[in-house]
Amino acid sequence: MSFAPLAISTLAIVLIAVGAVIALLLVLGRLGARARDRHRAGSWEEAVRSADAALAQAAASDRGWHREAMESAARAALDEARPGWPYGNLHLVLVDDRPGIDEDRAHFVAIDDDGQEARVVLSREGDRWSAERVD
Questions:
Q1: Is 86 within the bounds of a domain?
Q2: Is there a smaller number of Cβ atoms within 10 Å at the N or the C end of the chain?
Q3: Of the candidates 83, 59, 85, 84, which has an alpha carbon nearest to the alpha carbon of residue 70?
Q4: Is residue 109 part of a domain?
């Protein structure tokens, strides 16, 4: 009884090798993203604490820095820019309180359960906040 050697074409070998490399890159990319998220976790908490402190200072120095109004404007901007996007958390991460009120800015970051983020930049017009952009 004789057995014929298994014949595999060069194209099949190349395709298998390319598939293995792609699978390896996907796995390594996923592991890298998880490591990045773990590394960022502490910095998010610090950014939120810092923004909360800056908001308290800004609110003490002039009117118009009402957190509820700012969050409402950020949520409205997210609903308009990404209808139906199910974000779970909305964090105030930056307060830019410049002299006067025309250049005041506030940055919110919305995060969904999968870790995707959207940044909302609000600008102030008198006592009213409106979305400047959603990234």
A1: yes
A2: N
A3: 59
A4: yes
Residue 9 has pLDDT above 60, yes or no: yes
pLDDT of residue 35 exceeding 90, the answer is no
Residue 60 has pLDDT above 70, yes or no: no
Residue 2, pLDDT score? 57
What span, in angstroms and rounded, lies between the C-alpha atoms of 25 and 47?
Answer: 32
User: What is the arrangement of strands in the sheet containing 87-96, beginning at the earlier edge strand?
Assistant: 87-96, 105-112, 117-125, 128-134
> Would you say residue 5 lies in a domain?
no
74 within domain boundaries = yes
Q: Measuring CA to CA, how many Å separate 86 from each of 12, 21, 69, 117?
A: 43, 34, 21, 11
Q: What is the pTM assigned to this prediction?
A: 0.61
